[in-house]
Amino acid sequence: MIEAKQLSKSYGGQIALQALDMNIKEGEIFALLGQNGAGKTTTINCFLGFVEPTSGEALIHGVSVSNNPLESKQYLAYIPETVMLYPNLSGIENLAFFSSLAGQNYSEEKLKGFLSKSGLQESAQKQRVGGYSKGMRQKVGIAIALAKKAKALFLDEPTSGLDPKASNEFSEILKELSGEGTAILMATHDIFRAKEVAHRIGIMKEGQLVSELNAVDISANELEMLYLKTI
Amino acid sequence: MNRLKKINLLAKQAWVNTIHRRGTKGLILLVNLLLFFSLTVGYLNLSQHQNLVHGFGGEVRDKWENSPDKHPHRMAHYGYLVFREKFPLAFFDFGMDSYLGNVIFLEAHKQNTVNFSEANLSNGLLRFGEISAGMILQVLIPLLVFFWGFDLISRDREQGTLKILFAQGVQGPELIWGRALGLYLLNLSTVVLPFILGFILLFLHGEQDLLGQSVAHYLIMVLGYLVYFLVLCLVAVWVSGVSKSSKAALTTLIGCWLLFTLLIPKVSQVIGQTWYPTPSKIEFDSSVEQELILHGDSHNPNDPHYAALKDSLLRVHGVDSVQQLPFNYSGFVMREGERLSTETYLSHQRALVELFKQQQKIIRNAAWIDPFLAIKNLSMGMSGTDYDMYLHFQDQAEAYRYLLAQTMNELQIDLIGNRIKNSSDPSAQLSKEYWEKFPDFHQAFLPTAAVIKNQFYSILILALWLTLFSCLVWAFSNRIKAF
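Predict the joint structure of the above. Result:
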């Protein structure tokens, strides 16, 4: 579903991403670990088409991002690190706006349903997003992905700045999404959350995916040791 | 997913998001009120002006027609007062009107200046500029558009929503046009009602003979403003898209505003005055005077300059003194003198007007890089408050003055005896019927075709700016950075 073939990106002489190979299947959650500047965000940006790779290819649902940018976007959803949304619009208005841009036309009931499924309590749905916490805004982001019926979901540091409860809720929603067949790529610094929610974990260093392992094969403590040793 | 539908959604969202921002509704209301106020005040001033002009004009005519029997040259010196009328659209854009004279005294031998401008008669406050609807639309609205538009893309980038927008399948051109149209919608909310009010005021105007022309002018002008506003919206959104931050975008746009509305106009004006310096009033008058002295004094029938004329007349008529001529000789000399002095004056006047036109050409050329100047000229031209309309009046007044002086000279030549020593002699007096026969002054305005010809460049420049920015937006928008 999310596939990278020898994906590389360099800025001038500076290598940001080097020959990345990756394949995330339906319903799989892949967590990317690594220091700032290791290439996690560049990887996501390549899949989103915000960064043109120097060589190699990024594919979503088999569609090349560089060759068919518009088509590839039909299958994906993205939640940036800071989901600010439009503060003067309510949660439901934000969702309606973004999903109609993607071509969907939902009734208010449906939209409410998506928000509720994402864990946003009913009472908050009609309030302006300006008063939301980061966790609440992220739930709207999830609802956007739900409404789009995205096959591939990209998350950049989704749990940074969330309190433990919100972080936990978020993990539950991700698991639910993966259960429904969504492939998820998340870049994170949260080793314990990665271990808990992801099926596979990759550690990046200087633009390369230096190790890749199954989450079940390792404990959180071992993962931390490995991470510290790798970087 | 339809492109237009996306543009529509983005426009609507920009509108809703801004309208929900605190203060936006108040601002829209305020600008509407300000425009309503200035249109109404402008209209009342115009009506009052026209009433005054017609009132005084009638009085002047009455006094002229009821002048007692007298020598025609005394009537030529009694003269005529002519008042400048304003075009029915003058309430919309005051243009140069307030700084141009309104009354001119017409008499034989002498071209007086048009006096009593509003600036002349009011205190220093006018120097700070008056508020006409035209000024608000040209100067204030751009500031408002820039204020509403500076963050329409940069804020999305800062808040991460730009990435979501792109991830949802929005493309660059859709983003820019959508946001620009949303901004345009906000912009229109401040001007549409005032435009309608302006249109209605045209129909309320007391003199309906120019209704067709003023409606045509109004529509062209409004179209010009609509193009100007669209250009502003595209500029604002474009700058927001290329700037690194919202703050940088705002700074750039305020800089553009200062450049467009203050710097370029002022600099082009100074350049015009430096490259084509105009003589002062005294210099102008004395150079006309110096040339006139060479032509002799027509008031003095014995002036040596007219000796040749006299000799040839005597020869042709086979007489040996001017008293024996079959017509009034001093009238003949004055007719000749009037012709010469008017020719001299007009040649100087034409040279002066040519200088003014050169100065204005510099400003007109500056409009290529400044759409503000283009709309300013167009608005003034269409409202009939520009220099061209004023010149048209001045030419008519001078033509009327010449007609008056020469008609009186003709009456003297044909009807006054040749042996009259003194103009107060009862036999040298004509009946007042002759005064009534002399037609009243009727001011005509430049026809629409001439105004459009004058404003051709303003229209062309606005159209080019719109085309240029549309292309620029198209070419650039594929390279908008998501972060």
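The first helix of chain A runs from residue 40 to 48.
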